[in-house]
Every structure is written in structure tokens, then in C-alpha cells.
Amino acid sequence: MQKGAIRVQTENIFPIIKKFLYSDHEIFIRELVSNAVDATQKLKTLAGVGEFKGELGTPEITVKLDKEKKTLTISDMGVGMTAEEVDKYINQVAFSGAEEFLKKYKGQTDGTNIIGHFGLGFYSSFMVSNQVEIFTKSHKEEAPAVRWECDGSPEYMLEETTKENRGTDIVLHINEESEEFLDEHRIQTMLEKFCKFLPVPVKFADKQLNNTNPAWTKKPAELTDEDYQNFYKELYPYAEAPLFWIHLNVDYPFNLTGILYFPKINKSFEVQKDKISLYSNQVFVTDEVKDIVPEFLMLLHGVIDSPDIPLNVSRSYLQGDPNVKKISTYITKKVADKLDEIFRNDRKGFEEKWESIGLFAKYGMMTDDKFQEKGNKFLLLEDITEAGKFYTLEEYKQEASALQTNKDGKLVVLYATNAIQQDSYIQAAKNKGYKIIKLDTIIDAAFINNMEPRWDSMQFTRVDADIADNLVDKDEKSESVLTSDQETKLKELFEHIPQQHVKVELKGLSAEAQPVIVTRPEFMRRMKDMAAVGGSGMSWYASMPDEINMTINANHPIYLQILEESDNDKQQKQVRNLADLALLSQNLLTGADLTAFVNRSVELMSAEKKN
């Protein structure tokens, strides 16, 4: 029997490990099972280079729970350890056996099947245990089996024991504060989270819980569309089928594999983030991947696996490193290339998926200059008046430039956000031959504001931002059929309407146009829209009153009738009703004003009936 003290630089190492190294206590299952995988993969490597000549068998890792004894045991059939190796790798905290193994067999193994790099993983067991035992038998012939025991203090015991099979059993005696880990369902959930895709079979309650050869570890040429779809179902059993996917596979200047899926997204964007899982050699690390995946792609689903991603000592968080930026850039390029490829090869299918794809494309173009360069080619603008018709930027320019170029030489891109509410404005613009696109998603207000400075030859204007004649400012004058006196009288009638922040203007529009058209200037309305969805530093816009332009169509025949009316009170009510109708069309008539409009309308109708 050997007794001694674990060689550490400070006696406080265990409290530090227990309280500070791992923020989440359930991590211990990941660390111990990962160590078991390491031991198994090491044995396979040794067998491959001829240093182990015994029978490998079918190595697997088993996890056993004994509620009566309050123990949890993780067993492997790997290399095992001699007494000297236990002393070296267990008693010397932070001396990584995996690190030494990789150095020794450099060139004979690619290293990607060895998980551990820090040597502290085993000590996570003391977060949940008041005593830990190791029963291990080396693959080396004639080496006796040994038992190691420690209660979480720097004191340990190491002695020879009997063990029939090669490998290592880690026995955790669960402490009172951690009895949640004696629940079978809890253990199974943890194993499914951390060990779902480990390369060695992991069994619990006589059931294998992991897929040892997940789709991302294979070459794209080996996989069918059905394989990708099935793997998506494995990741997200209750999700709708994905639109398409991107298989990541790069080995220079960093190692990275994975599959990213584009989920189907409706325009309300009621989706879950954090659906991309980060793995390191098939070991789950985190689903917080914002430092690796560009923000505009955080709504993607899938898996990224890279042994080159720098993790902290607990393998729980990313550390700053140039590789992280390189990986982010690579993923952005792959997504842009994939979208461009689908657009070129299957435009119809691309258009059918645009409702979901558009979110990623627009967000990416706003936040990444290189993505925007490619996005300019596959960005689609949907015609709001013709179902299923889409334009690229170049196509819209060709279709609209003749009629929609203003006096400053800019192309005015007319858009609508609500086809029903803005129908009269859409029809008026359509009658002038204008092309109106649909921009009705939550991201579109920000998208317009970001793109206008970059597309300096284009100007976005909502179709209800002005009367149709003014949407494209060509510096043209309009003629009115009313005399100067009639125009003055009509303007006076409208200016008596007690509305704040309303600018009244008479214009000689076509007789078929509405008698009163209410519009909200593009800039202020756009700022208020941005503030409403939480635009940074723009909250004060939301509290500002609406600016309203009220355009009186002096050529509408109804005004000749009103101006001939001898009853001044009736004139005022008729004009007020026309103004209220226009305000109502823009949802700007509410409360007492709306009630007064209804009552006034009934009064005018009753008076007409009497006459």
C-alpha cells in the first residue's frame, strides 16, 4: 500500500475546483465520460501502431447508478492505468495525460480523437462527491490493478486490488448537497446533453444513448438529402423540416466541421436563438456561439465542431483568439456562397423560400460588408401588386427607372408595409405605372436605413408618405380647376379643423383621386417606426407627435358642391368629415375624434334625407 499527499502548489486547490472552476456542477458527467472516451481512443491508437496486441473487443462506456449506496459509476474498457500512471496523472493536478499522449504519438494520430487537454476534468467529480474511488487495470501485461481513493482533501490512498477486465471504473459517492444526481432521469438527461454524439458507445440503464457517427463527421459526398433531414430530426425532433443546409468542412488554417440548417421562419420571427451547438471532438461544449457565428446567423440551427476553438480551462467558455474571427469569417462566406448558389441554380425555389431566407440575407447585408457584396446579387424585392413576382436590385432598376427617377437623379424605391391598410395609396401609385414592393417584416425599417447610405443612387419612400403625384419629385407643377377665391375659401374651411401638427396643402390632382389625402412624411414616420422596435438612442422619437400632411385635391368635383353650399355650419361639417375619412385611412382618428366623426356622419345623412 502507498500513502502520500497529492502534489499541489496550494492546499486550497479542491475548494477552488469545487466552487470556481466549473460554474455548472452537471459538467462533471461530461468530464468523466470524456476521460473514458480518451482512454478508449488511446487504446485504439496503440493498437493501430502495434503497441497493444491484445483483443480490443467492442469498447463501450457504461454509467451505473446505485441509489442505495448513493454511488454513480463511470466505466470504460480503455487503456487503464498502472500505479505509476495513477500517481502521475491523478495525484499531480493539472498534468494532462492527453497532452503528453498527443506529443508522444505526434504524426501517428491526428489528435482529433483525444478530447482532454487540461488534466483537470477528473477533479470535477469532487463537486458532487464526498469520496471518489478509482478501480483501474492497465492494458500493459503483468501490471496489477490498483485502487485509488480520496475524500476531497489533499490526502489520498493508492493500493493494489483485483479487477478482472482492462479499463477504469470511477466511483462517485454522491454528497448530500448533490443528491439530485441520484435521479435516473436527471442522469439520462445530462448524458443526452453532453454525450449525445461521442465517438464511443455510452450506455445507461442498458440503453445506448449516443450516435457515435453523426452526419457532420462524414463527408458531404457520403450523405443524401434524406440523411441531412434525418439528422435534423435527431437534433430537433419537433421542428418543421429545414429549408436547406450547409455542410462545413475545412482543415486549414483551422479544423472545423459541422452542419448549419436554415429553419423555416415566419415573418413575426417568433423563433428561438441558441439553437446552434458547439462541440469539440464530438463533446458538447455550449450553445452560446455568438463569438463564432455572426449575429445575423444566430437563428440558424445545427452543429459546429472544432478542436481548434480556444476554450477556457473548464472547457465551458470561449477565449479570445484569432481563430475565432477566422471561423466567423469562414461561416459567413459559406452562407453567402450557398445562398448565391441556390439563387442561381433554382431561382423559383429560392423565391418560394424568401420569406424565411430574407431575414438572414437582410440582416447579413446590414452587418457584414463582404456579405452585402454578394447579397446585392440575390436580394429579392417582392412586388406587392402582383403575387409571386420578385425583382433583384438590378431588375427593379430596369423596370422602375423610367418613371421613378426624381429630379436629383435618384431612383425612388416605393414600398408598402401593409397591403390592406395602404391599399388606396398603392392603387394610386400603381395607376401612375409605379412599381411598389413589399417591406413588411420587423427588420425592414432598419434594413432601409442601413442600405440607403450604401446605395446612394436609391431612395426608399413608403407609398403613403405623400400623394402619388409627389412620391417621385420631378419638380412638376399641377393646375387647379378652382379660382383663386375658391381655393382661398376651401383652404380656410380646412384650416378651421382643430388638428395639431397638420400641414394643409391644395393641389390640382386628377378628378378621380381622393378628395383628401393624409400622408406622414417619410423621415419622421420611419424614425418613429424604428423607435417602436427598440432602436438604440431613438426612444425620444416614439413620444413625438405625428407629423401629418393633408393634401386637398382641388380638382375633385365634391368641392364645387361644398363651396356652393350656403349653410356655413354644414360646409364645416362636410369638410371635417372628408378630413376625418382621410385620417381614418391612416389609423390617425381615434378616441373622441372618432366618436365625433360617427355622430357627425349620422347627422349629415339625416339632414340629406330630410331634404
What would your notes on this structure say?
The protein is α+β, with helices and mostly antiparallel strands and 611 residues long. Among the domains are: 12-207, 2-Layer Sandwich (Heat Shock Protein 90), CATH 3.30.565; 215-343, Ribosomal Protein S5, domain 2; 484-517 and 547-607, Four Helix Bundle (Hemerythrin (Met), subunit A). The protein is 38% helix and 18% strand. The protein is built from 20 helices and 22 strands. The strands form four sheets. It has a nine-stranded mixed β-sheet. A five-stranded mixed β-sheet has the order 10-11-14-12-13, sandwiched between helices. Strands 16-15-18-17-19 form a five-stranded mixed β-sheet. Strand 10 and strand 11 (256-262) form a beta hairpin. Helix 7 packs parallel to helix 10 (369-378) and helix 9 (354-367) packs antiparallel against helix 10 (369-378). The longest helix has 24 residues, at 322-345. The chain is elongated, with a radius of gyration of 36 Å.
| DSSP, total strands | 22
CATH homologous superfamily assignment of the domain at 12-207: Histidine kinase-like ATPase, C-terminal domain
Task: Indicate the proportion of strand residues.
Answer: 15-25%
Cα end-to-end separation: 118 Å
In CATH terms, what is the architecture of the domain at 12-207?
Answer: 2-Layer Sandwich
Strand neighbour order, sheet with most strands = 1-6-5-4-7-3-2-8-9
Helix run count: 20
User: According to CATH, what is the topology of the domain at 12-207?
Assistant: Heat Shock Protein 90
User: What about the largest sheet?
Assistant: 9 strands, mixed
> Which structural class should the secondary elements be placed in?
alpha+beta
What Rg is obtained from the alpha carbons, in whole angstroms? 36 Å
What is the C-level CATH assignment of the domain at 12-207?
A: Alpha Beta
Give the proportion of residues in helices: 25-40%
The best one-word shape is: elongated
Overall average residue pLDDT: 83
Runs in which pLDDT lies below 50 for 5 or more consecutive residues are 94-98, 111-118
Protein name: Chaperone protein HtpG
Organism: Chitinophaga ginsengisoli
Keywords: ATP-binding, Chaperone, Cytoplasm, Nucleotide-binding, Stress response
Binding site for ATP: 31, 35, 76, 81, 96-97, 168, 315
